[in-house]
Amino acid sequence: MKRNTRDPSHEKQDPNIGNRHKLYDTLGRQITYLRVSVTDRCNLRCLYCMPPKGVRFKPRAEILTYEEIARIVRVSATLGVRKVRLTGGEPLVRSDVVELVSSLAGTPGIAEVSLTTNGILLDRYAGSLARAGLRRVNVSLDTLRPDRFQRVTRGGDLEQVWAGIRAAEEADLRPIKLNVVVVRGLNDDELCDLARLTLDHDWHIRYIELMPFREETDWDADMPSAGQRYVPLAEMLERMEPLGELLPVKNEVNGAGPARYHRIPGARGTLGFISPIGLHFCDSCNRLRLTADGHIRPCLLGDEELDVRAALRAGASDEELLALLQEATHIKPPSHLLAEHVVPHERPMSAIGG
Ligand code: SAM
Ligand code: SF4
Predict the structure, then answer these.
(1) Residue 181's domain spans which residues?
(2) How far apart, in whole angstroms, are the C-alpha atoms of residue 207 and residue 50?
(3) Residue at 1 is within a domain
(4) Whole-prediction pTM value?
(5) Is 3 inside a domain boundary?
(6) CA distances (Å), 200 to each of 47, 251, 264, 267, in order?
(7) Residue 285 within any structural domain of the chain
(8) Is 116 in the pocket of ligand 1 (CB under 6 A)?
(9) CATH label of the domain that carries residue 305
C-alpha cells in the first residue's frame, strides 16, 4: 500500500515566522526538532533502559494529554520547529497515538512527524500511522538472535519486530532506521551480521554507544559489570573490519542527525554510528525534548528541565508558552558533561525517550 508521498519543500509554512521568533541558543544553534515522549510506560524491559520490576510510572493525571502536546507542538512550530519525533517509553502502548500523529502532521509548519519504537506493536499500527501522516520510523533492534532478543528485552519476541518492520515497509514508512545499542558481552559479536542486513535491504543501521544513566546496576551474573559494558566507537569500527573498507556516505540519509554514515561497497543500505560519548555532536544539536509528564529538557544528558505542564494547566497564553520554549533554548548547555562524569540521574532513559 502506498500513502501520499510529500515533498518537504512544499510543506505548509507559517508565513508569520520571522528570525526574531526562531529558537537560537546562546551558541547560535537553531532548534528545529522536538522529540516528544508520549508515555513513560513500555511493553519491554530492556536491560540497559529499565529495571525488571518496581518501575514507578507517572500517574495518568501527570501525563500530558494529546491536546496539550498538540498545543506545545503548534507553538514550537511558530518558532521554527519543523520536525517532531514521537518516542516513549514505547509510544505505541499509548492508546489512540494515531490520532496524535494525525493532529501533529496537520500542524502548520511541521514538515515531518516520525516515530521511534521497539517494533512490537508496529505490525498492528504501521498502516494507520502512515495514513495519519507519519513519515518514517526508527526501530530498535539490538540482535538477530531470538533467544538473545528475549534476554536483552526481558521477554520480547523478535518475530513481532520483524513483522513490524515488514509492515512499515509495506506502509512506505521510509527510510527505515534500525537502532542498535552496542553492549559488550551482549551483542558486540553481532555487529557484522547486523551490518550485512544492508546488503539486501535499503535500511540504515545505526550503532549507538551505550549511554550511562542513573545508578548503573549489574544485570546478570554472567554479564559484564557496569563499568565494562561500554563499547567505544573506535572499537566498533575495529570489530567491523571483516566487512572490508566502508565507504563514507554524504548527505544521502534523510534526517541523518547525529549519525555519521558509511556503506559496505555495493550495499543497498547504510551503516551509521552515533557516538554521544566518544565523538559527541553537541555543537550541531538542534533539538529540545518534551517528557511525557510535560517538562522541556534542553539536553538528553543533562537533568535541567522546565515545567511546561504547570504553565499549561495554570492557563498560560501562547505568548507565555513561547517564552518558556525560548528560555529552554537559552539554558541549553554547550555540551553534555559525561567526560567529567556528570551523569543524568533524575530520570531513566525510558522517561525521556532517547
Ligand atoms: N521504546 C522505544 C524504542 O525502544 O525504540 C523508544 C524509546 S527508547 C528509550 C529510544 C532509544 O533509546 C532506543 O533506540 C533505545 O535502544 C535507546 N536507549 C535506551 N537506553 C539507552 C542507553 N542507556 N544508551 C543508549 N541508547 C539507549
Ligand atoms: Fe522500552 Fe525502548 Fe526502553 Fe526497551 S529501550 S525498555 S523498548 S523504552
Answers:
(1) 8-351
(2) 20
(3) no
(4) 0.91
(5) no
(6) 30, 21, 11, 7
(7) yes
(8) yes
(9) 3.20.20.70
